Amino acid sequence: MERLIETARKEGALNVIALPRDWVNYGEIIDTFSEDYGIKVNQLEPGASSQQEIQAAARLKPDVFDLSLEVAVANAKLFAPYKVQTWQDIPDRVKDYAGRWYAGYGGYMSIGYDPSKVAAPASYADLLKPGYSVSLPGDPRQNAAAFNGVMAASLRGNKVEAERGVELFERLRKAGNLSATERTASVVVDWDYDNAGRAAAETSDRPRWAVAIPGNTVLSSYNVQAIYENAPHPAAARLWQEFLFSDKGQNLFLKGFARPARMEALQMRGTLDKALAAKLPATTAKPVIMTIPEIDAAKVYLQRKWAGKVG
Q: Which element (helix H / strand E) includes 72?
């Protein structure tokens, strides 16, 4: 680590891409890394999607990526293998055996709602009741969080079926319960870290916000980290990964209401920030992660059916 830190400091910079400062506490994460190691962090295209990161890589030359699982798997050839010191703590199901990509943090799909307007929903079917105005954080054919919101609504036991999710949103539209924007909605179906962030950002002139994770199973997903094979600052890129997967870095994700990939290991070793963990939306539901074939099939179905059924 001492040699890595020394080399990274000589490089003097790190290029990150698609990391909004208000996303899972990335603003503080970037600032802390920069202050700890004296390395300037250049933030490229903070609003880019995972696929846009890959498309822009040759032009913008990022050092590291933060990607959805399916985009990382499809583009693994672009990443430099590297295993952080805490590699063994990352669950096997969310890391590449060769070290080309590995989960950094994740979340559960949730229902954020304004309790002054609607009751806490006990299921996604409850959103069909009178008085609910439901929104997604974007078009599910283009936005990953919105796509997973539709998939979460389709979850029965351990199985996700896109047809079921689209059918529910079609029924919401027909019932007049589907809102075009979050601004006018009393409910937003989104990742729990986003909905918890909305609740934490409340001010006196904003409505209250609460978060529900209904059911015995919950749709879960991880964002994964990777190093660009043509990284202009290869040592800084590796140091960034070591920082993100350190106890400090993982707890900084937790501060942004994300669930650290090493959370179980942190709990076992007594290094998890318990006060921050207590602020996560409560649930005893069993997490379900979609497979890559399931994701691909669901995306094809939404491209074919969403416009005609939901609009």
A: helix 69-74
